[in-house]
């Protein structure tokens, strides 16, 4: 009797399994996956990604992508005319699953000057769709394709001159999830690196045209995540909580440079190499080719700010390829102790490394004409140079970096303040009753920039409203 | 003796210009053989003498035209020859929208409309070869294509937004005395679709590799190809009934000897 029951159970479970298999039938050829019903794809701007496909069946997926040529900000004070898919660089994120039949509507806004098209690396077909999507301003082209291979793919414009269209920001990512979707994680973000070539050098103010010669030479002025300097820092930083698993969809639009993607203070638990099926584990830095992508996943164990960089490191600190992941939650002293002792060790200090002296720094070509401009330019310098330590409202960081807001040390002596920016400051000082023993290196700023930034500081956050001019800076500079 | 040849030459030149009276609003373009930048089967093309409009056709000129030829009015134009954007910056058949200027180049016109306009004046649209021939001049030279500044200026315009809203004749004229070939709007050409550019630009590069050798022979730089590429790309994306915000036209006239 008992045996019989066992057999019955076995039979039922077999039946169940076979039913289950029927539902999740694995198609030998992904082109045979049938589609049911129609839906409009959710498109998102970076750094957000659409909802995971989960267990949904393959569908006819309608994607409407608008091309916009528009002016935007590369970094403080520097404007650039971007060509975009969906109004952002990188373009809107497209999320599909294997077997979807994507009906792609490419719309070229009437205000645009140029024809465009789209080559999606997820497309199996001539030109990746470029051939059938070539569209004049004020028109819309429609083509469709079936997603045959799971993975994370780059899309980009492929209209002549191809390099220029990509260099102006025409790229983005399309994800094809496997049957049943990718494993669910707590946070997902969309990050794409790109290099930009401007007529003026890095930081030169005003509307900067594209420089074809620099692009041909692959001498980038800006290497950035998500289209501009600072798109992932400060208030724009991506966030997570301790214990969460973070998945980053990282692409590289190029056009010229290959990315050595790295997150400072994290090890990638998993990397889908080049966006494909193969998973590598415990990776420090993953290489992302131009026109390629990777999925990286890691669990965040401790709180703090983790810096995303292209580990070709001058690009990170001098050309903009820097982002932030801010993690909140309980500390775990076992995993990371935090500061135990406070000693000074500065391998990059002025004594050890040859840094250009302030005399060698060229003055800006467009000097500030009045107080308002001094404040404006001063703020730009502040955000580029001082912000990291002294913080956005001049509040500093307790026990580490002294405040500039309502600072008695600052307001007591203007010439001393100029000297500090010019030559740096090491050793113990007392600011507003608190002792600080830290190091500020000398800053690579021109006299005019120093005058502007100090004017900004003195006229912000309840300080003494002094106005500093270039002559005052020169006087202090020549005194030593 | 030397003097005499000089005189003969001067007189011959004088007669040459006298023998031909110039049409108002047009200038005489002396034909020649040249190598276009890109897009033809043979490398050298010949352009015969012709006259070209000094300025692109403006909104107010086009208004005169539609008054005379009602079938090209906004509400009357046949759908076969225009798309629904035709004159979409006009309020109605005879008025511009308040944001538009009468002396801006007319845009949102189809190839059919542009062609009809020119024919009604006893003129015609320029061929790609004619247009490119005049457009390769800058202020001081007839072929400025190897000058980096010339190319940079053109590329900068390709990036500048809303230039179609500017008035004609604000930028310097080229050595022929022609204004605004670059800097305001794209212009229709008679045979805009004779150069087959597929939507897949990279394939075109392969197809026409011979042409690149051809242009290399005239010391082409990358910049030079890129500027031309963009013009051929926009032409390749067009159909004759399209009406586009950044696309206008001007006319030319054959010389009857």
Provide structural commentary.
The complex is a heterodimer of chains A (480) and B (257). Chain A has 480 residues and is α/β, with parallel strands linked by helices. Chain A contains ten helices and 23 strands. Helices cover 21% and strands 31% of the residues of chain A. The longest helix of chain A is centred in the first third of the chain and has 22 residues. Chain B has 257 residues and is mostly helical. Chain B is 34% helix and 8% strand. Chain B is built from eight helices and seven strands; from the N terminus they run H-E-E-E-E-H-H-H-H-E-H-H-H-E-E. In chain B, helix 5 runs parallel beside helix 8. The interface between A and B is large, with 35 and 37 residues.
List the helices and strands and how they pair.
The complex is a heterodimer of chains A (480) and B (257).
Chain A: H1 2-23, E1 38-40, E2 60-75, E3 78-85, E4 94-97, E5 101-108, E6 119-120, H2 130-133, E7 139-146, E8 151-156, H3 162-167, E9 171-177, E10 187-196, E11 206-207, H4 212-217, E12 222-225, E13 238-241, E14 245-254, E15 259-264, E16 268-272, E17 279-283, E18 285-288, E19 292-299, E20 304-310, H5 313-318, E21 322-328, H6 371-390, H7 408-412, H8 414-423, E22 425-431, E23 434-440, H9 447-458, H10 470-479
Parallel strand pairs in A: 1-2, 2-5, 3-11, 4-9, 10-14, 13-21
Antiparallel strand pairs in A: 2-3, 5-7, 6-8, 8-9, 10-12, 14-19, 15-18, 15-20, 16-17, 16-19, 20-21, 22-23
Helix pairs in contact in A: 6-9, 8-10, 9-10
Chain B: H1 2-18, E1 26-29, E2 32-34, E3 45-47, E4 50-53, H2 59-68, H3 111-120, H4 128-135, H5 148-159, E5 186-187, H6 201-207, H7 209-217, H8 222-236, E6 247-248, E7 252-254
Parallel strand pairs in B: 5-6
Antiparallel strand pairs in B: 1-4, 2-3, 4-7
Organism (chain B): Aestuariibaculum marinum
Protein name (chain B): Formylglycine-generating enzyme family protein
Pfam family, one (chain B): FGE-sulfatase
């Amino acid at each position: 009797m008992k045996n019989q029951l066992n057999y019955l159970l076995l039979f039922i479970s077999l039946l169940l399994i076979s039913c289950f298999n029927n539902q999740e039938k694995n198609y030998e050829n992904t082109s045979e996956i049938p589609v049911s019903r129609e839906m409009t794809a959710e498109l998102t701007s970076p750094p957000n990604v659409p909802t995971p496909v989960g267990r949904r069946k393959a569908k006819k997926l309608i994607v409407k992508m608008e091309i916009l040529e528009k002016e935007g900000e590369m970094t403080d004070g520097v404007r650039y005319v971007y060509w975009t898919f969906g109004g952002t660089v990188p373009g809107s994120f497209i999320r599909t699953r294997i077997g979807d039949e994507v009906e792609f509507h490419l719309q070229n806004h009437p205000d645009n000057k140029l024809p465009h098209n789209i080559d999606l690396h997820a497309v199996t077909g001539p030109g990746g769709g470029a051939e059938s999507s070539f569209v004049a301003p004020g028109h819309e082209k429609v083509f469709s394709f079936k997603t045959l291979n799971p993975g994370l793919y780059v899309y980009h414009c492929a209209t002549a001159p191809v390099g220029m269209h990509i260099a102006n920001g025409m790229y983005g990512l399309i994800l094809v999830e496997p049957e049943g979707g990718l494993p669910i994680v707590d946070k997902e973000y969309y990050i794409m690196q790109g290099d930009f070539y401007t007529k003026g050098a890095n930081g030169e103010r005003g509307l900067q045209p594209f420089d074809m010669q620099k692009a041909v030479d692959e001498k980038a002025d800006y290497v950035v995540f998500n289209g501009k300097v600072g798109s992932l820092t400060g208030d724009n930083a991506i966030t997570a909580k301790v214990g969460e698993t973070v998945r980053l969809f990282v692409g590289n639009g190029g056009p010229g440079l290959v990315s050595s993607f790295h997150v400072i203070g994290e090890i990638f638990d998993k990397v889908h190499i080049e966006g494909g099926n193969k998973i590598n584990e415990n990776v420090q830095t993953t290489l992302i080719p131009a026109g390629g992508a990777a999925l990286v996943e890691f669990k965040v164990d401790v709180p703090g700010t983790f810096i995303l960089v292209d580990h070709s490191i001058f690009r990170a600190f001098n050309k903009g390829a820097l982002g932030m992941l801010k993690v909140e939650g309980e500390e775990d002293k076992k995993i990371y102790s935090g500061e135990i002792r406070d000693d000074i060790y500065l391998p990059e200090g002025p004594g050890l490394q040859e840094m250009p002296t302030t005399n060698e720094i060229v003055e800006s070509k467009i000097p500030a004409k009045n107080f308002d401009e001094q404040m404006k330019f001063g703020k730009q310098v502040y955000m580029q140079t001082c912000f990291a330590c002294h913080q956005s409202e001049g509040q500093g960081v307790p026990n580490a970096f002294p405040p500039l807001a309502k600072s008695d040390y600052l307001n007591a002596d203007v010439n001393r303040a100029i000297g500090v920016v010019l030559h740096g400051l090491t050793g113990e000082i007392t600011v507003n009753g608190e002792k600080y023993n830290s190091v500020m290196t000398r800053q690579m700023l021109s006299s005019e920039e120093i005058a502007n930034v100090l004017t900004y500081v003195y006229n912000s956050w309840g300080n003494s409203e002094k106005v500093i001019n270039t002559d005052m800076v020169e006087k202090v500079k020549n005194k030593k | 003796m030397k003097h005499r040849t000089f005189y003969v030459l001067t007189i011959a030149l004088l007669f040459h210009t006298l023998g031909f009276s110039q049409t108002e609003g047009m200038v005489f373009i002396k034909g020649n053989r040249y190598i276009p930048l890109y897009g033809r089967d043979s490398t050298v093309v010949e352009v015969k003498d012709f006259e070209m409009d000094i300025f692109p056709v403006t909104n107010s000129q086009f208004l005169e035209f539609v008054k005379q030829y009602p079938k090209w009015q906004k509400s009357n134009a046949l759908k076969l020859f225009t798309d629904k954007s035709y004159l979409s910056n006009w309020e109605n058949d005879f008025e511009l929208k308040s944001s538009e200027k009468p002396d801006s180049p007319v845009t949102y016109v189809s190839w059919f409309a542009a062609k009809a306009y020119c024919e009604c004046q006893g003129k015609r649209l320029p061929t790609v070869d004619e247009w490119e021939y005049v457009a390769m001049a800058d202020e001081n030279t007839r072929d400025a294509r190897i000058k980096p500044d010339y190319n940079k200026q053109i590329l900068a315009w390709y990036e500048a937004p809303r230039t179609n809203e500017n008035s004609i004749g604000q930028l310097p004229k080229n050595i022929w005395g022609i204004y605004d070939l670059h800097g305001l709007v794209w212009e229709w050409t008679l045979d805009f679709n004779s150069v087959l550019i597929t939507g897949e630009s990279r394939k075109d590069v392969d197809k026409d590799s011979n042409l690149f050798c051809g242009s290399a022979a005239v010391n082409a730089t990358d910049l030079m190809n890129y500027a031309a590429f963009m013009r051929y790309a926009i032409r390749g994306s067009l159909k004759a009934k399209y009406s586009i915000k950044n696309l206008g036209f001007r006319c030319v006239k054959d010389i009857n000897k």
